[in-house]
């Protein structure tokens, strides 16, 4: 799904947080939104999902105005994984993932829905906990279940808000590899808020770097993750390297601080 955001402004009561956002996110890409806390990343994702109504501007999804789309049509096309701490479900993992099929099925689930859920549970190695209560899982397990729910939706666009924040590094790689496979095999697009710059550098086709509610830089990871950009946007001195043709970022010191060695 191609996302075209034009002249987008958004305010919470008494506080403007997005200023004239103009960006095109291409079809079948992984786009990572990065930037300091409070720079507006989650707000952009919520505007794309139409959970928030902008003050001004337009969001076009495959050329159609998002504000004119019916909720059910949005739900068929867009899977959204909020920051997991926000959600509770007093039901089983299986039923939470099955909820992802709702937009496509009637009140009754079909055998196709059940098969899709089973496939996703196996893919994300969640089958052993399929009958456990969602609310009793660890934060990382809950995060994987919520990703499974969104993927069971077979969305054209997957919106993820810090999807790997509670995952160990093995599960971070697993989830990102599975998402990449979906992008390649099912032409899904992904917009993902992520704090881990190295994860973004490894998996993103495009990085959008925000500062104070404005887009500061957009491009390939190696174009955006420069010493200069990291110094300006994060106020951090960083060492930029490379591993397996992917840029790597090592934060060294807050700007203005001298690197402490030997301590
Ligand atoms: P990020 O995802 O980059 O951390 P957010 O989009 O969550 O940033 O927040 C952008 C700004 O909007 C921050 O200053 C935050 O405090 C403020 N904000 C976020 N949610 C709300 C809300 N519900 N009401 C008022 N202000 C909010």
User: How do the helices and strands follow one another from N- to C-terminus?
Assistant: EEEHEEHEHHHEHEHEEHHEE
Structural class computed from helices and strand pairing: alpha/beta
| Average pLDDT level | 92
Strand content: 25-35%
Molecular shape:
globular
Overall strand count: 12
The domain count comes to: 1
Helix content percent band: 25-40%
Major beta sheet summary: 6 strands, mixed
The CATH architecture term is: 3-Layer(aba) Sandwich
* The CATH class: Alpha Beta
Q: Low-confidence parts lasting 5 or more residues at pLDDT below 50?
A: 258-263
SSE topology sketch:
Blueprint: E1 3-12, E2 15-25, E3 30-34, H1 41-48, E4 56-61, E5 64-65, H2 71-77, E6 78-81, H3 93-99, H4 111-123, H5 139-152, E7 157-161, H6 169-186, E8 189-193, H7 197-203, E9 206-211, E10 214-219, H8 221-224, H9 227-234, E11 236-243, E12 246-254
Parallel strand pairs: 3-8, 3-9, 6-7, 7-8
Antiparallel strand pairs: 1-2, 1-4, 4-5, 9-10, 11-12
Helix pairs in contact: 3-5, 4-5
The protein binds adenosine-5'-diphosphate (ADP).
What is this structure, in a nutshell?
This protein is an alpha/beta fold.
Give your account of this protein's structure.
- The chain has helices at residues 41-48, 71-77, 93-99, 111-123, 139-152, 169-186, 197-203, 221-224, 227-234; strands spanning 3-12, 15-25, 30-34, 56-61, 64-65, 78-81, 157-161, 189-193, 206-211, 214-219, 236-243, 246-254.
- The protein has 263 residues and is of the alpha/beta class.
- The protein has one domain (3-254): P-loop containing nucleotide triphosphate hydrolases (Rossmann fold, 3-Layer(aba) Sandwich), CATH 3.40.50.300.
- Strands 6-7-8-3-9-10 form a six-stranded mixed β-sheet, sandwiched between helices. The protein has a four-stranded antiparallel β-sheet with strand order 2-1-4-5, covered by helices on one side. A two-stranded antiparallel sheet has the order 11-12.
- β11 (236-243) and β12 (246-254) form a beta hairpin.
- α3 packs parallel to α5 and α4 crosses α5.
- The chain is globular, with a radius of gyration of 19 Å.
- It binds adenosine-5'-diphosphate.
- Adenosine-5'-diphosphate (ADP) binds at residues 12, 15, 17, 35, 37-43, 193.
- Pfam families: ABC_tran (PF00005).
- Keywords: ATP-binding, Nucleotide-binding, Translocase, Transport.
């Amino acid at each position: 799904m191609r996302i075209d955001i034009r002249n987008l402004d958004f305010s919470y009561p008494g506080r403007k947080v997005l200023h004239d956002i103009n960006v095109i996110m291409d079809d079948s890409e992984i786009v990572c939104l990065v930037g300091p806390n409070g720079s507006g990343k989650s707000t952009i994702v919520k505007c794309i999902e139409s959970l928030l109504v902008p003050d001004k501007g337009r969001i076009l999804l495959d050329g159609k105005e998002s504000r004119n789309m019916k909720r059910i049509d949005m739900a068929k096309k867009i899977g959204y994984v909020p920051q997991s701490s926000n959600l509770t479900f007093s039901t089983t993992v299986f039923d939470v993932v099955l909820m992802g099929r709702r937009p496509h099925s009637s009140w009754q689930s079909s055998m196709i829905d059940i098969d899709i859920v089973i496939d996703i549970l196996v893919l994300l190695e969640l089958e052993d906990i399929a009958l456990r209560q969602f609310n009793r899982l660890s934060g990382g397990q809950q995060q994987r279940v919520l990703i499974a729910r969104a993927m069971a939706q077979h969305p054209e666009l997957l919106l993820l808000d810090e999807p790997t924040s509670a995952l160990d590094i093995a599960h971070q790689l697993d989830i990102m590899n599975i998402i990449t496979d979906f992008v390649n095999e099912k032409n899904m697009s992904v917009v993902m808020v992520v704090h881990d710059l190295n994860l973004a550098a490894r998996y993103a086709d495009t990085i959008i770097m925000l500062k104070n509610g404005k887009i500061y830089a957009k491009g390939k990871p190696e174009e955006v993750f420069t010493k200069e950009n990291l110094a300006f946007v994060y106020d951090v001195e960083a060492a930029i390297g490379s591993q397996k043709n992917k840029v790597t970022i090592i934060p060294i010191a807050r700007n203005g601080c001298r690197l402490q060695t030997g301590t």
